[in-house]
């Protein structure tokens, strides 16, 4: 299976590549990468870190947009790392963040309505229209059936650890220790 590299960020200044994984402290690590890149604190700008084009405007590149020869050189010469988390904890976190409170209208409209339609017998017209009451078992069935989205895709699909030799793979549970 071909692996995509959309999640890999490149800091040419420090010769670092970081594969960010949603629901695995990615906001904190994107902010840290930017702070390292520019040599200053970006804690106040953390809410902007996921905005389209924000990191690019600061000089952080997306690996997947580089030319082939640029990719090969960086894969050889740069330090590469990713952070992981227990996959089941990550799924629970994604569900809670995107569906549990029913407040994320983007996810309700894009996924919630479809999940309810496909996995809930006797769904009400309101549930089918709003998609804001997805049950955990419905969400899990949706994921297991292969419905992709970065917040619940596998680490292999997001970061290609079987194809890319990462210099470090940290774990959320031991982040303090792994960060050093």
What can you tell me about this protein's structure?
With 180 residues, the chain is α/β, with parallel strands linked by helices. It folds into two domains: 8-85 and 154-179, no CATH class; 89-144, no CATH class. The protein has nine helices and five strands, in the order E-E-H-H-E-H-E-H-H-H-H-H-E-H. It has helices at residues 26-38, 54-57, 68-77, 87-100, 105-119, 125-130, 136-144, 155-159, 175-179; strands at residues 8-11, 16-19, 61-62, 79-84, 168-171. It has a five-stranded mixed β-sheet, sandwiched between helices. It is elongated and about 55 Å long. The protein starts with 7 loop residues before the first strand and ends with a helix. The mean pLDDT is 90. Belongs to the sulfotransferase 2 family. It comes from Capitella teleta. Its EC number is 2.8.2.-.
Keywords:
9 helices, P-loop_NTPase, single chain, 5 strands, 2 domains, five-stranded mixed sheet, alpha/beta, elongated, Sulfotransferase, about 180 residues
